[in-house]
Amino acid sequence: MKKILTLFLVLLVLTIFNSISFASDEAATVAECIEMSKQAAEMILQDKDAALAEISKKNGKFVWKDSYVFAMDLKGKMLAHPMMPGLMKMKSLLSTPDKNPKEPKMLFVDFVVLAGTKGEGWVDYMWPKPGSTTPMIKETYIYRVPGTSIFVGAGIYR
Q1: What pTM does this model have?
Q2: Most exposed: 51, 78, 110, 145, by fewest CB within 10 Å?
Q3: Which of the 8 DSSP states describes residue 130?
Q4: How far, in Å, CA of 120 to CA of 153, rounded?
Q5: Taking the domains of the chain in order of start, what are their residue ranges?
Q6: DSSP-based three-state secondary structure for 120
Q7: At a CB cut-off of 8 Å and minimum separation 6, what does 61 contact?
Q8: 67-91 burial string, b = 16+ CB within 10 Å, else e?
Q9: Tens digit of pLDDT for each residue in 56-113?
């Protein structure tokens, strides 16, 4: 009986682990990135501090599949980032390049320019997926929170 119970528990743990691994392997969609960014923007308009705290949570509502929402201001300061909280300690990210070893791109400058001019759109660059250190092509939707100097973004990996 003990062997059967042990086997059952091992199978249960493996099943749970496999389902968690599968969920994280799912790719976010363009539509989800736009929708989650706009939801985050709406939350910022309602309660900025609560929204930034929620966006910063690694297991919060703005982290899904292989994507997440982050928030910045037009000066290049990261206000909330669930995967790399160290980015929030920097005064400005405007001089920080992407992870492309051949042709680094000033992605945060592109984010700020897009948010400050058009208010929304897409920026492509090289960035590692959560849980990886290998950079890959990422396309991020940038959306300026109406009436503020804050913008949010979420991206897909190619």
Answers
A1: 0.83
A2: 110
A3: T
A4: 9
A5: 27-157
A6: strand
A7: 54
A8: bbbbbbbeebbbbbbbbeeebbeee
A9: 999 999 999 999 999 999 999 999 999 999 999 999 999 999 999 999 999 999 999 9
